[in-house]
Amino acid sequence: MHNTTMKRIIFYSILIFMFSCLIGFFYARIWKANNGDVAIDSNSINSNKQVQETNSSEEKLSFNSTFAIKKYYDECGHFEFNYSELPKELVNLTQKEIEDMYPAWTVEEFSMAGVVLSKKENNICNEHYVIKLADNSVDIYHLEQNGEERLYKSTNIMKEYLTQEDISNLKTGIYVYGKGNINSVIEDFE
């Protein structure tokens, strides 16, 4: 029983010590906040104002901030999102300064970590393709923003190996979004 009593005494002593330190810490902060300003001369006040103004300034981009461009395409409803290196002329600029520098763009996101500029385009994006039957083989065309088709790639798939349904579909054209989806459509004809 003597051993447990000793443990309790040590435990409560440590607890009281920690509580006393905590009270002393808070008391010192309150005293410094109330009495610390009394002993400051006018030169110190001016330097403190400068520090306060610097601390309350707007967020700015740093040299290691991220930079992204986001384009919305009205005609197809898609968007492109591209990261790139932050242009050197944007380092240390605020959101307002970037808005002034790029009036045709919207600052969609801004923080010290990075900036995202966005813009609406009245076109289709660059990810639209048409797979068609040209003469005796299947060809892939890229849809340009003006609506024209430009040959993107010819395949070795010959007309003679296709079903009548495939030939009919390829004559009107099979529209595909994204380069990654082209291969899955082409595989159906092989």
Give, in order, the helices and strands.
Answer: HHEEHEEEEEHEH
Helical amount among residues, as a percent range? 25-40%
How many runs of DSSP E, i.e. beta strands?
8
Q: Order of strands across the biggest sheet?
A: 2-1-4-3
Quaternary structure: single chain
Q: Overall 3D geometry?
A: elongated
Q: Quick one: biggest sheet?
A: 4 strands, mixed
User: Beta-strand percentage?
Assistant: 25-35%
Number of helices: 5
Structural class by secondary-structure content: alpha+beta
**Uncertain runs with pLDDT below 50, 5 residues or more?**
36-56
Distance N to C terminus: 88 Å
The radius of gyration computed from the alpha-carbon positions, rounded to a whole number of angstroms, is 34 Å
Mean pLDDT: 81
Describe it for me?
This protein has 190 residues and is an alpha+beta fold. The chain is 38% helix and 29% strand. The protein has a four-stranded mixed sheet, covered by helices on one side. The protein is elongated, with a radius of gyration of 34 Å. Residues 36-56 have low confidence and may be disordered.
Keywords:
4-stranded antiparallel β-sheet; alpha+beta; 190 residues; 29% strand; 4-stranded mixed β-sheet
Quick structural overview:
Helix content is 38%, strand content 29%.
How do the helices and strands line up, and which of them pair or pack?
Elements: H1 2-35, H2 42-55, E1 66-73, E2 79-84, H3 95-101, E3 106-111, E4 114-121, E5 128-134, E6 137-143, E7 149-158, H4 164-172, E8 174-177, H5 179-187
Parallel strand pairs: 1-4
Antiparallel strand pairs: 1-2, 3-4, 5-6, 5-8, 6-7
